Amino acid sequence: MIRLSQLKVVPGQEKDLHSYVAKALSVKPEDILQLHIVKKSLDARKKPELFWIFTVDAELKASVNFKKIFKNKNVSSAPERKNYEIPKCGKTELKNPPVVIGMGPAGLFCAYLLAKRGFKPIVIERGNDVDTRIRDVEDFWQGKPLKPDSNVQFGEGGAGTFSDGKLNTGVKDKDGRNHAVLEIFHKHGAPEAILYDGKPHIGTDILVHVVKSMREEIIALGGSVLFGHKFVGYETTADGVLREIKVQRLSDGAILSMETNIAVLALGHSARDTYEMLCDKALPMEPKPFAVGVRVEHGQDYINRTQYGDEYEMRYGKNLPASPYKLTARAKNGRGVYSFCMCPGGYVVNASSEEGRLAVNGMSYSKRCGEHANSAIVVAVDEKDFGSDHVLAGMYFQRELERKAFELCEGKIPVQFYEDFKKSMLESCVSEECKKTHSVKGLYESGDVSSIFPKTVSTAIVDGMEQFDSMIPGFAKENPLLCGVESRTSAPVRILRNEDFQASVAGIYPCGEGAGYAGGITSAAMDGMKVAEHIIVQYRP
To answer: How do residues 55-69 score in pLDDT, each as one tens digit?
Structure first.
């Protein structure tokens, strides 16, 4: 098996990949016995000339001239693929099933591995199953009351279910967990392209089916899932070892006790009441910096033209994906400003989870075919901004911004054109033109979005937007729509754990984004896998 790198393919001609490979290797197409795509990414550095860049592994007939083939500087021997394997079980018998609290990516993958090794985990999820959750969210976006325990943040699949489903991560992957996450997603219904795309994504419409399929396999392996149940406390033995957790059944408020020596806290970054409970029980935590800001919406065609060239449709038709972008800047006041969770062809969504407070997020469907692109433009904040040294001060800071956002337009998403946002730094300025059609899921209304933030944050947003305009011409001058408030970029705390992944209470395993150890679907899933592996090597079911 050989590996061919840096293979350029014109967009729209991917079906002729065999021919491209044969030509690059100077062999006949029929000499290629097998072809495996390792990676695919778009090279737009010399627009309007665009190319897909492929890395492929090829098995060739023994009769070809390998000596000649290896003279090609882009050819090498294909490295042996390292397949991820779940570790074998340890020797200590686990008398009670492990409990996984939260069914976002971290909890889902943790439970999945535990189930694969026969541990029959019990998954506790305060929200609803994904089918019910979809109806709850759609009703809320149409103006019906918020369900605090079943919304964009809570429910099967976690907050990532109603997002773009981006799967790229900067986490190093020497143990193969990253690819294992992609393979498991693919096994449960995600498209094969996520296995090799340079920037893989699934999309909300497919992700909902993937997480449901994973849940069904966990149950088929002997695990169980309790929807509509909220983790509300725990008890320990005299020597500080977990012995039971307390769960509230939300349908009737009953408090249930469950004996267990293992509880994985895969809470998600919006489980604020749970943070407060853990703080009251003195489980060690520390504040963590995060970022807040707005969602900025541009026309997707405009973004495509800036990234692909003005004639991209004439040259390539519909054969290019909706273009993403990634931007960073340093405001004059020293604040870091950057784009976050960019959603090509996507929607701004009302992602609220608490009554009287409002937060937004972005999402895309698998085809990313919406008319608008959106991204969070956020500013780094830390303890200096929170006004307190309390461990949950960052969470209370988030809540205050969300309260202001909710009250600004009486529960509707406040929106404002960028030029008005900038003028509002000096005087209140709100344009009624915001009433025109935008890609927003949830009721929205014109409001002074700049008034939500401390002046240091609003000023940094403006500085960042002006700098981004020099990177993507027109980014600010196109007068994009700003939606507030983006406040849930990451968890405001980290629940401390030691080298064996346990908190100060033996048997409690903080895990994933909500515990402060991940940032995104893939990294959270990988952290869930790490925690599961540690449990598996210590115990046997």
So the answer is: 999 999 999 999 999
